[in-house]
Write a structure and sequence with these properties.
The complex is a heterodimer of chains A (114) and B (113). Chain A has no helices and eleven strands. Chain A has 114 residues and is an all-beta fold. Chain A starts with a strand and ends with a strand. Helices cover 0% and strands 57% of the residues of chain B. The chains are: A mainly beta (114), B mainly beta (113).
């Protein structure tokens, strides 16, 4: 099992550019989510998915788009990058959507927007 | 909705000394509580979690946390820290029936040789 994988590890964008952060898990997990981590702010939920074809917004969804066409993949799209989106992005998955299942985190993508 | 407050952003402690990292939460429903640890340049890993039953939960590397419903707290403790415990620790809460895990802002534990 590779667990949760994220690509790329690092990315630099110019303001206004778009890009997709990739996330995949090979554990057949139902639930997947995206967080951003900023210094002194902890992790904040951007979007989450409770199964293929089902997504919903978290705490800070503006400027981001997601889709979940398969159980394994949950890409995060930045539509028009802004400097405020400079952050470290983590993808996570857990076996079920409800309950107290452990979330398994990927290694993160460090994004800088100039 | 639920929220988490970690009362200390940084905690320096000498090696082999005890440590307590404080966490308070608020929620209108029953909750599940978690502590995650993040080592430098890595993702988060689960340290321990409280679901129900015994209010004291333990991890495999000597940490423990006690759920206190009346004080809405879930403080993390270790009787003797090692250099390898240097990391950032996040308290998190999930309300029963919720899909969302809410994190605190984190506490950076620095163990001084």
């Amino acid at each position: 099992n590779a667990g949760v994988t994220q690509t790329p590890k690092f990315q630099v964008l110019k303001t206004g550019q778009s890009m997709t952060l990739q996330c995949a898990q090979d554990m057949n997990h139902e639930y997947m989510s995206w967080y951003r981590q900023d210094p002194g702010m902890g992790l904040r939920l951007i979007h989450y998915s409770v199964g293929a074809g089902i997504t919903d917004q978290g705490e800070v969804p503006n400027g981001y788009n997601v889709s979940r066409s398969t159980t394994e993949d949950f890409p995060l799209r930045l539509l028009s990058a802004a400097p405020s989106q400079t952050s470290v992005y983590f993808c996570a998955s857990s076996p079920r959507s409800g309950g107290a299942d452990t979330q398994y985190f990927g290694p993160g993508t460090r994004l800088t927007v100039l | 909705a639920q929220s988490v407050t970690q009362l200390d952003s940084q905690v320096p402690v000498f090696e082999e000394a005890p440590v307590e990292l404080r966490c308070n939460y608020s929620s209108s429903v029953s909750v599940y509580l978690f502590w995650y640890v993040q080592y430098p340049n890595q993702g988060l890993q689960l340290l321990l979690k409280y679901l129900s039953g015994s209010t004291l939960v333990e991890s495999i590397n000597g940490f423990e946390a006690e759920f206190n419903k009346s004080q809405t707290s879930f403080h993390l403790r270790k009787p003797s820290v090692h250099i390898s415990d240097t990391a950032e620790y996040f308290c998190a809460v999930k309300g029963a029936g919720s899909y969302q895990l809410t994190f605190g802002k984190g506490t950076k534990l620095s163990v001084i040789p």
